[in-house]
């Protein structure tokens, strides 16, 4: 039976200056999703979950991010009543890490199913189904992980409601260090600590940072990029969830990182650097700082991934 295997990359959402509206993809870690036609039933069935979250993730289609994305897509294509598809989810990234784990599974499933059915939709058109999938995991409709996961690069979301998503330029040489400490934070819980009120002075600083960050990307101004990457709004409210946060951030900045903040809802932290060498050094410094607080961590160093979900193989 025809089978499609895809790789869906991890993503860093928020990027310090764009809570819920900015994200970028990295080369690894990521999930592998397999979609396979099966004529013995109709709809989507999850037949296997392996890897880092095999005991945690639900196998019921309607409770699983990949299952929901695939099922809604199948229905949209008018194939819900005549096509059966098995999904295998191979989790290769930590769950509850702030690296867009649920987004990767949802985006991977949508691309794999679309490819299995002859690729009737563009990547951009798959976005809606992917966000519906991710909504199952954290209860909110935001595309800051799924959009960069699907299409790669740095994405800006003008509106999550209408999924008005835009690609931003990626300056050459930028590398990212992502450190995942062995602490688990659920997005749902990290959203619960946030206040609904933002003081005017904080909003002004945050808007200045976001606007300058985007200007820096368009003008390739690395110095401005470094001055922009500060989170005045969300990081102060969430950092207490991450033991050692201040020391880890200081370690990255001391080693030349342009900016360092929480990846998505955390606990992973990312540092943006202007070379792979600096990213490696910043990442190792961040790991050492976590270690001083008794926390083990994993380090991933990568350029910004410009490809998004990749089809690894198609077997007829
Ligand atoms: N923007 C989201 C948050 C990303 O920080 O809550 C996590 O999925």
Written overview of the protein:
There is one protein chain. It is built from ten helices and eleven strands. It has 316 residues and is of the alpha+beta class. It has two domains: 3-168, Ribosomal Protein S5, domain 2, CATH 3.30.230.10; 175-303, GHMP kinase, C-terminal domain (Alpha-Beta Plaits). The strands form two sheets. Strands 1, 2, 3, 4, 5, 6 and 11 form a seven-stranded mixed sheet that branches. The longest helix has 20 residues, at 200-219. The chain starts with a strand and ends with a strand. 51% of the residues are buried. The mean pLDDT is 95. L-homoserine (HSE) binds next to α5.
List keywords for this structure.
10 helices, 2 domains, 4-stranded antiparallel beta sheet, alpha+beta
Topology:
Elements: E1 3-13, E2 22-37, E3 43-51, H1 65-76, E4 84-91, H2 101-116, H3 123-138, H4 146-151, E5 154-159, E6 164-168, E7 175-181, H5 187-192, H6 200-219, H7 222-228, H8 235-238, H9 245-254, E8 259-262, E9 269-273, H10 276-292, E10 297-303, E11 310-315
Parallel strand pairs: 3-4
Antiparallel strand pairs: 1-2, 1-11, 2-4, 2-5, 5-6, 7-9, 7-10, 8-9
The structure holds L-homoserine.
L-homoserine is lined by residues 13-14, 19-20, 138, 142, 144-145, 187, 190-191, 264-265.
